[in-house]
Amino acid sequence: MLGSVSLGDHLPRDWRTGTFVGRLAAPEGPIVVVCQDGRLRDVTALAPTVAELFQDWRGPPAGGRDLGDLEDFDFAAAPLLAPVDLQVIKAAGVTFAVSAVERVIEERARGDAAKAESIRADLSARVGADLRAVQPGSEAAARLKAALIADGLWSQYLEVAIGPDAEIFTKAPVLAAVGHGAQIGVRSDSGWNNPEPEVVLVCDSVGRVLGATLGNDVNLRDFEGRSALLLSKAKDNNASCAIGPFIRIFDDGFGLDDVRQAQVDLLIEGADNYRLEGRSSMDQISRDPLELVRQTLSEHQYPDGFALFLGTLFAPTQDRDEPGRGFTHKPGDVVRITSPRLGMLQNEVTTSKAAAPWTFGVAALMRNLAGRGLLGERG
Length: 379
Description:
By secondary structure, this protein is α+β, with helices and mostly antiparallel strands. It is built from ten helices and 18 strands. Strand 10 and strand 11 form a beta hairpin.
């Protein structure tokens, strides 16, 4: 799918100064790679999974098999996989509270901008704060909840947007995510769906945030809109989770503050010449990323670590076919999610039935690694 475009064009502009971890589908099986100073190394003999590589992470391991300059590597022979393997894939939803509240206000105003401003001003007066400054779980959030309930505007989505508890769910089974360049899937019986461009944190078993990457939390708006109890059908389908291209490791040049300020851009180009652009600004997130990590770990353990989607501000409203019908995917759409410090995640849309079936699970991975002599004791 990358065609003649160099993978270097899909990486951050400063990729030669950063450290990146990824996985490739080599002929012998998945390999773990590290890129430093522009050089790609196969470190599978040192750590056969990314989960093990990160478990005692103190920096990139020395050694491994040199694969040459990343820009010269033949990714047609060893395509990119999702850069996580045994980590549980978690996701946080409705993390941009202001957009959730604004959507409720817009629905009540029915497109009347003046009425929307009036509702907004009235709520702000009763809450005693700018709605955009309300922090989830705060006293101001409790007052806003009371005002919204009194006006008949409350919903379960607002509960997780401004209440004390974040929505944290499991997005996909272990090893089910696809990588950069692969096809992504939407259910064949969905008539209203969209991408969700997000930043994804990668954590070890004790919650250390070691790096970040990009993700597409493909969502079925018709299924989830019918009932929140259909969330699993809306979120977890074959090829419905894309992560990549690489995990950028936190170091002196890139860290959590860069994630907090990240701009995530979206471009969708369809075979029907349809084009849609959007943006999600992480500086508008309502809960700090570390708070989302804390809530993910509060009553659960993840011995192989976890990846955590942080949510999105993006909600497409631009009509595609009929006026008033909004956006939905069509097979052949090319989705590009870009952030300056994380690069580009690019995938083509198909249905979950038509996408390559997921057959390589945990048992298959263990058999493969054992057959390659990579599961022995390590020092």
